[in-house]
Amino acid sequence: MAKNAEIARALKELALLVEIEGKEKYAARAYKRAVRSITSLGEDIEAVANREELESIPGIGKGISKKIRRYLETGSIPLLERLRARIPVKVMVLDSIPGVGPKTIALLYHELGVTDLDSLEKAARDGKIALLKGMGKKTETQIIEGIDLVRSGLDRTLLADAMSVVETIRQKIQNVDGVNQVVIAGSYRRRRETVGDLDFLVDADDPELVMEAFSTLDNVQDVLVKGPTKTAVRLKSSLQMDLRVIPTESFGAGLQYFTGSVDHNVRLRGIARSMGLKLNEYGLYRDEELVAGEREEDIYESLGLAWITPELRENHGEIDAVKNGTLPHLVKLDDIRGDLHSHTDQSDGSNTIEEMLDAAAEREHEYFCVSDHTQSLTIANGMDEERLLERIEEIDTLNTSGKWDMMILKGAEVDILADGTLDITDDVLAQLDVVTVSVHSRMKDSKKVMTERVCTALENKHVHLLGHPTGRLIGKRAEFEIDLEPVFEVAKKNQVAMELNANPYRLDLNPGNLRAAINMDLKIAINTDAHKVSELDYMKFGIFQARRGWITKSDVLNTMALKDLQKWLKK
DNA sequence: GCCGTTTTCGGCCCGACTGTTTTCAGTCG
Asked: Which is more confident, A467 or A207?
């Protein structure tokens, strides 16, 4: 579905440019709506176009469907090209700076000639932005910080986005004549939150055939490097992909070498040297003799180590742990028995409760918690107590209906207010099975205020989970200022579990925080926070992140059998 | 630019928050 992302991106840029021109704000709004629709389509838009059903997609009518067809035929949209020529500004990147939107971009362009990150940074550092009407010193500082944030995430792609394109490409390469195996190594294989480029390793009889197939893939924008065993391309989505062809007898060594991390590999090579061996991408050698190379496991075993799962290869103690036999048995997707955080169309979800339950049942969950937003989050149509009580009754009825072979748990994602109190009374909270509390407002509170605020919320005896504890959105919004150590202590005292939010933009807590949490014997709940049926599959990203945080099955709340979970929830 | 249908034209989600102002524009979700 690579075209979905490309088209969504083109329409988003179109929306921004139209908004910057300031003439047709409702057209811009329509483009944005189409972007959301395409992003959540769940089907290849090209297939929809081929069936001539583009206009059946919500938010897509005659005008936008024509633009989409034009893009599919020619790779561009005429109106977009005209606007780009008229407003030569890198609007997508400028818009990604927190606090900067179309109006600000227009102002900066017209008054200061700002067209990209560099010219924006210069204007900000020269103090010119604060002098503009409606701007000030704080805005200028915020922009400078925002530039750093954008720069730090600019050259990396979200793992989930990479994953959505990578399997199709892997299959295409796998189908080339004489290809024995294809593995994507690097940070992708280590399941980092974001990936820089993708490293394809191929064991093939005829390298040239593979190179040719790789460099002529559909979405290739540029071929950066093309040699006998290595090709590098940049896709239209700006994702860079490297391909290396490696002989069969060295494939395991190549895999080990190109999976990294660099620091992990440095340790391994040190161990090899101390044993009078030499390790490189072609194998493990004693003088000229190949000791190991074909299988990755053999490399580790020959170094006196057990094989280490890629998620742990960060040189964060995994090598010592495997030496001592203390490497944990990490949690697996199969271990998960349910999901404790999901939304429906009662708040800001897209699907009905029945649709969500059907989908959860398909995933063979033993229990499933419906936890819509509460009243303070008005924009998400959060529930007041009256609606929440109706929801509780509704779930009781659904549970007795026998329609789902699964316990439906009554929950809510309750807003933590400015003073740390909750926006639902204790009487109502007491009637819920699972109470998750989250921060959705005042995210710029000082560390002291935010920490106290969250700790206060966790002191409420009805609270079971702290949702997305740091509030970050990868590449979009930094974590809010919060001191997690006291939060963990209060959570421990009150038997509150930490959420590992599996949304690929959140993955919150991060691996370091997860390790800190389990070191204090806190439970972790790996939750999808699904806002629609398809997002229930986010669980796998939560599992990747959990494994990177050294989390075992027994650390995880939702690996428990229902009865044990219910006992835990009763505190 | 899309959409519904007591509307094929006229409205389009909307309230909180921030930083800038001194009543509000812009951004966010």
From this structure: A467
